[in-house]
Amino acid sequence: MEISSKENTHFFSNNTILPVDRSSFKSESSASREKQSCCGGIKIFLSALSFVYFAKALSGSYLKSTITQIERRFEIPSSLVGIIDGSFEIGNLLIIILVSYFGAKLHRPRIIGAGCLIMSAGTFLIAMPQFFMGRYRYERFPSTVNSTVNISPCQQDKNQTPLSALEKSQAKINAGCEKEAGSSMWIYVLLGNLLRGIGETPIQPLGITYIDDYAIEENSALYIGCVQTVAIIGPIFGFLLGSLCAKLYVDMGFVDLDSVTITPKDVQWVGAWWLGYLIAGVISVLAGIPFWFLPKHLVKPESRKDSSTSSEQSKFIIEEHKDQHKSYQQQGKIAEMAKGKSLEFLSRLLNFFPSLKILFGNSVYILYLCASIIQFNSLIGMVTYKPKYIEQQYGQTSSKTNFVIGLINIPAVAFGIFSGGVVMKKFRIGVLGAAKLSLGSSFFGYLLLLSLFAMGCENSEVAGLTVSYHGTKQRTDYEQALFSECNSGCSCSRNDWDPICGENGVTYISACLAGCQASNGTGKNTVFFNCSCVGTFESSQSSSAVVGPCQKGNECPKMFLYFLVISVITSYTLSVGGTPGYILLLRCVKPHLKSFALGIYTLAIRVLAGIPAPVYFGVAIDTTCLKWGSKRCGGRGACRLYDSSALRYVYLGLTLVLGTVSIFFGIAVLWVLRKRSSPPDETLSANGERGTCGTQSRKDNFVNSDCLIQSTYWPEKETRL
């Protein structure tokens, strides 16, 4: 194969590549066979890569769907869950530069296969704590756990509780404390997610460049679009899998389900979160198998061999010889080749910093990078805690929340990305137009998000937390307000969380704090009677109560529907700007720096958005907690109840502030482009070919790139909205 020495000497002037003699023509049948072989190989790789994209998107979105389940299972705050979520990005950070810069020289399919194995190992590791940390224990009054001893909720001191039952319960607690004292099993979840990040790293840069290298030029964009389309399907199945597993009890198969006294509507409910990780791990293993049997190189199509524009790999990294039809004459020159490889590696290393300097000297690239970092901070934080927000704000179960996100929000994102590409192609929008479209979608998307402030639910009426025991709004310190005259004769703990719903529609933290004197029934059917605090409530007609918290107000279901409609429209609007933004990113750098620019872009997004955003969003959300749970051995557990109004303002406010700042950076990008552009802006023809570039020729920062309008790829975009 003939390679242009001009392109190669762009980086390494000392390397000389001699042209290879070729026949003047090929027979028609030979060309046909070559085309069939090329298409067959690339289509097999395309199918395998699509399945891998599906697998990684499924496992990534499933993790998002289990955030609240992990928080409850391990009794950890949201800030710590944010660190676990960000560990995936840390794994990417460890090797992304090496993969994006040097990976094209190695056996790319096998590297992807190895990445799948590492990804599956991490997924399995996340599920392992379930099998080593014992059964899940939740707070429940003894009479609700099928006890044959009739204990008055209001008389739970040591003098009135049967000694045998108390000693037995205390012995179990002490044994459990000894087991928990030396273990922090959530660390295994963090390490597993870290491994997932390491394994996922080579899939996108090596897979996409492999397709671009060996696909027919006019089919490259179509193939990449197919891969990204399949990647959108993964999160749909991931959230639906999360919805299914959230309905199943965490210890299913290990305990008698009839003895479980909580329901999926209870804030202490934990679903079978571990089951989905086992399924996702098996899928990742299966997805990696085909790559171990794919070749390092495919036969290039004839149009690519004679093209004046060589592939990304030949532009950025010099290979030894790509002509696979001639015998390798270098086999007798092993020492010379080793020396050449060493010089080549050194040359690539020396050119790393000049390439980095060129990118950082590009004002359009830097401004767009800053805008993207801030915008992804808002989107990552919003999506990470969106299930928690829906559960706490609208009183929905984890199962229903995941079902809604997977079946409604994710398709809206996919349709928005597709619409952005169609608009770009139909109206032949150039770079300046792409910047306008990206900015406009962000502006209107965050404007729609502003309306969600008016679509929240009021706090649930919880005696001692959000309302007083007399029915008035709570204003005093909640810990002091948990006790009142109606329960002053009871020996109650303020740390318990065993909610009951009074006949007056008010939730009480426990039957003891409600002043209940008697109970009837067992398990979920337990009914409490003679509850002194329920009877003193100003709207009370009775003094009985049932197990479980009361439902939110009558207006909350309607507000939830409004929220879903606006959320879907917002997701679509923000996604429309994805493709134009991606094209802007590719067109503002030199062609031979595209891969490197994307690598730096992805690295910056992961380090400055993917890692910190879930953490500080979690810290902010923790400040809105009204009632913290308690660990069995002491210490603060997971939050049981949030202040709905404060949660809404913190969650949506932080998202909007970050989004607004990103819009200002987008305006700066547009201003620089307007300053640099001349009237005949760069246009894209209907078939995707490059038009003329209207930027000033003296500017090195803004040049044409390969003209392929391909489906956008945001880092883990499939789980962002």
UniProtKB/TrEMBL annotation:
Q: What is this protein called?
A: Solute carrier organic anion transporter family member
The family note in this entry says: Belongs to the organo anion transporter (TC 2.A.60) family.
Known catalysed reaction(s)? L-thyroxine sulfate(out) = L-thyroxine sulfate(in); 3,3',5'-triiodo-L-thyronine(out) = 3,3',5'-triiodo-L-thyronine(in); L-thyroxine(out) = L-thyroxine(in)
* InterPro entries linked: Kazal_dom, Kazal_dom_sf, MFS_dom, MFS_trans_sf, OATP
Ranges of residues in domain Kazal-like = 480-535
Q: Which locations, inside or outside the cell, does it occupy?
A: Cell membrane
Give TM segment ranges.
40-59, 80-104, 110-132, 221-250, 270-294, 358-383, 403-423, 435-455, 559-586, 598-621, 650-673
The entry's keywords = Cell membrane, Disulfide bond, Glycoprotein, Ion transport, Lipid transport, Membrane, Transmembrane, Transmembrane helix, Transport
What's any GO biological process attached to this entry?
Answer: sodium-independent organic anion transport
Which terms in the Gene Ontology molecular function aspect does this entry carry?
Answer: bile acid transmembrane transporter activity; sodium-independent organic anion transmembrane transporter activity
Query: What's the short name of a Pfam family annotated to this entry?
Result: OATP
- Residue ranges of the Major facilitator superfamily (MFS) profile domain? 45-677
> Where are the residues of the annotated region Disordered?
678-697
The principal localisation class reads membrane
Q: What is the membrane topology noted in the UniProt record heading this document?
A: Multi-pass membrane protein
GO cellular component terms given for this protein: basolateral plasma membrane
